Amino acid sequence: MSEMHDLKAKVKKYYRFTPAELRGLVISILIIGFIVSFREWGPGNEVMLSVGLFNWFNSSLLAALTLLAFISAQKIVSLQAGLNAEYRMSMWALSFGLLVAFVSRGYIWFLIPGGIIFHHMAGHRLGWYRYDVNYFALAILSLWGPIANIVLAIIFKIINGFIFHPMFQKAIALNLVFAVYSILPIPPAAGNKVYFGSRMLYAFSLVLVVAAAVFLWIDIPIWIAIGGALAVAVVGWLLYYTIWEKDMWQSPYAKMREK
Q1: What DSSP designation does 168 have?
Q2: Would you say 70 and 59 are in contact if contact means Cβ atoms under 8 Å apart?
Q3: SS3 content of the chain, % helix, strand, coil (to 5)
Q4: Using CA atoms, how far apart are residues 138 and 152, in angstroms rounded to an integer?
Q5: E-state strands within the chain
Q6: How far is residue 36's CA from residue 58's CA, in Å, rounded to a whole number?
Q7: Which of 51, 69, 79, 215 is the most exposed place for a label (fewest CB within 10 A)?
Q8: Tens digits of per-residue pLDDT, 93-105?
Q9: 161 by DSSP, 3-state: which?
Q10: Per-residue pLDDT at 175
């Protein structure tokens, strides 16, 4: 209970966005919104400015919710670990996303707008180590971003089951695609920190996020989708450990005996 009060106090005191973060968020949201609404600027190949701007605005609202859920989850859990998470926009990644949208005519969404930088908060205990940055801790903190998007997609799917609307469908797709891209092991995606923090954790989380995205998109009950994603993730983790990682954990003497 005291930990919850401590977290609430930290969120109240430290949860905020710097001016640089806000500028990066606004640019990222507008570009993601444009990518998502690329094929919604008019019927067929026709471009209608009023229709396009309206759909761009709606897509930007969904992009704002998606990105804020991703970043806020990482910021809040980071505060509990004595770290401050700062969003850094990546202009090259956003530019590449725009290029992919134009080349594919909007059929492919490349959504890696930026990444999170973790800073030590003086006077607060840090992760699993007292005075140093623990890369395994950073991997876990980074993983909360994709998890938040998966949870948000589940919420939208539940709402869509009662009140069907194309906006809810787009919100589900956006959060699932964003979660999959963010778990990739390339900078500045969160998956890059997860991979270098723990390959075993990355193997499980990669399969979990991808499987959850697939199962949540198809028309099956949510509890089956969640349970199926967890089962597939466990199997994928075991296969990874058996095929690749098992030999890495053996001592040199055990390897010599096998030979």
Answers
A1: H
A2: no
A3: 70, 5, 25
A4: 22
A5: 83-89, 114-120
A6: 10
A7: 51
A8: 999 999 999 999 9
A9: helix
A10: 96
Length of the chain counted residue by residue: 259
Cis peptide bond upstream of 188, omega within 30: yes
The confidence score (pLDDT) of residue 149 equals: 96
State CA 212 to chain mean position distance.
13
pLDDT of residue 247: 64
Report the candidate in 137, 93, 131, 98 with the shortest Cα–Cα distance to residue 114.
Answer: 93
- Run of H or E residues at 151: helix 135-162
Residue from 113, 108, 92, 244 nearest 190 by CA: 113
Integer-rounded Cα Rg, in Å, for the chain is 20
Of 123, 144, 233, 255, nearest in space to 197 by CA: 144
* Token pair 């949201």 in the structure block, residue: 29
Nearest to 179 by CA among 100, 70, 85: 70
Please tell me the predicted confidence (pLDDT) of residue 205.
94
Task: Using 70 as the pLDDT threshold, list the residues of the chain that sit under it.
Answer: 1-7, 122-133, 246-259
pLDDT of residue 253: 47
